[in-house]
Amino acid sequence: MKTTIPNLSYVFGRTLALSAVAATLTAFGCTKDSQAKAASPATDPQPGLPPERVADMLHSVMEADRTVYTRNVVNRLVKEQQVQIVNPDTKEQEAFKASEQWKTEHGKLPLPAQMFRMGAERVTDAKVGFTYALLSKWPINKQNNPKTDVETKGLEAVAANGGDKPFYGKEELGGKKYLTAVYADVAVASACIDCHNDHKDSPKHDFELDDVMGGVVIRIPL
Amino acid sequence: MFLAAVIMSTTLAGYLAWAWQRDERSAFLPGTTTHGHYQIELACDACHSPFEGVTQEACESCHAEELELADDSHPRSKFTDPRNADRIERVDARACVTCHVEHRPALAGLMGVTQPSDYCFHCHSDIGDERPTHAGLPFDGCQAVGCHNFHDNRALHEDFLEKHVDEPWLRREPRLALLRTSRPVPDRDPLQVADHDAPSGIRVAEATIDDWQRSAHADARVNCSDCHLAGESADDEEDWNPAPDHEVCASCHERPVKGFLAGHHGMRLAQGMEPMRPGDARLPMRPEAGDRALDCGSCHTVHAYDREVAAVDACLGCHDDDHSRAYTASSHAQLFRSELLGEVPEGTGVSCATCHMPREKAPRGVFTVQHNQNDNLRPNEKMIRSVCQNCHGIGFAIDALADSELVGRNFDGLPSVHVESIDMVRRKIAAANVSRAP
C-alpha cells in the first residue's frame, strides 16, 4: 500500500552536475575577463563564444533540469506511483504532492516553477555573472511580470512566433550592459494549464495546451 | 579663532586617545544603540571592521540563519538581480544597514528600522491594481501588526490565512507537543547518592547531592565529574571546576546553548564579554536581581535542573514589567497551575516558557526547546506559528497580538481590536469562486 520514496539523490545529483556545466560554460564563454584575456579577433577567428550561444547552452541546461524534475520526480511520484504519506497531525494517509507552500507544510515537493526560481536565486547569490528568471505577461506571482522593455518585447516576440526561436536584445541596467535572451515557455502538459487556469492569483484562466505561457529570461553581462 | 580650533581639536583627540587607552569605548559611541544591540555596543568589532565600516558579512554572521529559516520575503538575491537595478536606486535593500542604521535613536522605529514607515511604497505603489482589497490603503500601515512584515511573513501569508480562515478562537484540544525529558540509559539504573564521584577533598552539601540524584542527570548516569572535571580523571582535585559554565553544558546540550547565546540572555557571552546582568537591562527588572550574572544556571536551578522553576519562577525572579507582573493572575497561568496539580492533561498549561521558549520540531521529529527567547518575539506575529496556533485559531491570535493593552495584561480578556487581513482573504476566495464558476 505504502510506496517508499525512491532515492532522489540521483536526480538531484544530475541537476547539480548540469548546473556545474552551466557555470563552467559562462566562465569559459564570454565574461569580461575571458574576453580580455582572449587573443584579438584579428589573430584568432574564434575569440570565444558569442553571448547568444552561451545563453542558448545555459537555457538547454535549465530546460533539461526542469523537465527531469517535472517528469522524473514530481510526475513519477505524484501521478504514476501515487505515493501516500501519513499526515503527522491527523495521522491519516494522504497523497504525496507538490505544493506552493512546500516550505511550511509537511511532506511536500516544491513546484517546478519554484524549483526553477530557487535555482535562479542561488545562481544570483553565487555571483557567477549571469542571472535568469521565469517570467510571464500573465503571472501568478506578480514578481514574475516583465519589468524592462527588453523583457516585454522578448515575451511578446516568443509568444508571437509560438516559441519557434528565441529573442535576443541588449539593455543597460544599473549602469551595466547585458545581453538578454528570452525563450518561450510552452504549456507542454495539461498539468500546466490546469494549475494556472485554476489558480486564484492567475490573471488568465483560458490557457490551452501548447500556448506560450511565458518565457525564460537569461541575462549575460557584456 | 584658529588657536581656539587647534586647542579644541587637540583636546578632543587627547581625550579619545586616553579613552581608547583605558578601554573606555563608550566614549566612541556616536548615539544610543538600539534595543537589539545595546548589550554588545562596546564590542565595536562585532559589527565594525577597520576601514570598512559595517560590512554585510558582520550582520549576516549573526542574522543570516534566522532569515533563511524565516523564509525571508526580501532576500538579498532579489535585489542583486540586475532586473531590479532601478529598485535599489530607491532603497538599496542589498545591505541591512540601508534600513537598520545603528546609533540613530531619533530615526529608529520598531525592530531598529530607520526608514520612514511608508517605505513599501517605493516598490509596491501599484498594489491596489493587483489587489483591489488594498486600493487606497495608506502605505504607513502595511506593517501594522497582523498585516505584513518585510522579512518574516510565514504567519501572515495569504495561503496560510486561507488554510485557517474559519477557525474557532480555541481549538478542540488545546495542547502542546510533549518533550522527551531525559533519555533513560537502556538496561542501566539511575545513579544513586552513593554513586556520586566528587573527589574526596571536595566538600559537597548533602542537599546538592540529593538535588542531583533526583535530576535527569542522575537518570542518564551523568556524574559530578562529567561537568566539574569535564570527563578528566575523577581524582583530580586540582582540576575541579567549581562552577562549570555554558560551554560545559554545550558539550551535551548544543542546541539549547546555541539558542541561549543568540538571544538577549546570552548575547554578551557569545561576544566573549562579561555576562549580562538584569541591572544593565533596559526592560524593568526587579532591583534585588540587578547583580545576577546570566548563565544557564540562572534559570535552571543548578543540580536540581527543575523545569517547572525554569518555566515561570526563574523569569519572574528578574522581569518586572506589566506583562510579566500580570502573568500570575492570567488564565494562562491558571492553566499552568492546574497542569502542575494534574487537573488537566499534560501540555495544557501555559507558562512563560510555553510562549517565549517554544518547543520546536527538530530534525527527525524530536521536539526541542528554543532557548533564544527573542527568536519569536519581534514582530510578535512570529509567535503565531510556533506558539499560539497550538491552542488558538489564527484570526483570534492575530487580533490578540495586535492589541497592545491586552498584551500588557498578559492576555487576560478578549481582543478589542480586529485585524482585517483574514476578512480580505475570505472576500478574495469568495470573489475567485464567483469568477471561476461556469
Describe the secondary-structure layout.
The complex is a heterodimer of chains A (222) and B (438).
Chain A: H1 9-28, H2 32-37, H3 51-80, E1 84-86, E2 93-95, E3 97-98, E4 108-109, H4 112-126, E5 131-135, H5 149-160, E6 167-173, E7 176-186, H6 190-198, E8 212-221
Parallel strand pairs in A: 3-4
Antiparallel strand pairs in A: 1-2, 5-8, 6-7, 7-8
Helix pairs in contact in A: 1-3, 3-4
Chain B: H1 2-21, E1 48-49, E2 53-54, H2 56-69, H3 76-80, H4 85-90, H5 121-124, H6 127-130, H7 158-163, H8 206-214, H9 216-219, H10 224-228, H11 246-250, H12 254-262, H13 267-270, H14 296-299, H15 307-316, H16 322-327, H17 331-340, H18 352-356, E3 359-361, E4 367-369, H19 382-386, H20 394-402, H21 404-408, H22 421-436
Antiparallel strand pairs in B: 1-2, 3-4
Describe this structure in words.
By secondary structure, chain A is an alpha+beta fold. Chain A has six helices and eight strands. In chain A, strand 6 and strand 7 form a beta hairpin. Chain B has a domain at 34-116. Chain B contains 22 helices and four strands. In chain B, strand 3 (359-361) and strand 4 (367-369) form a beta hairpin. Chain A binds chain B through residues 88, 100-101, 103-104, 121-122, 124-125, 127, 131, 133, 142-143, 147-148, 151, 173-176, 178, 198, 200, 205, 217, 219, and chain B through 71, 75-78, 80-86, 88-89, 130, 154, 159-160, 365, 385, 428-429, 432, 435-436.
Notable characteristics:
heterodimer; A: 222 residues; alpha+beta; four-stranded antiparallel sheet; two-stranded antiparallel ribbon; 19% strand; globular; B: 438 residues; mainly alpha
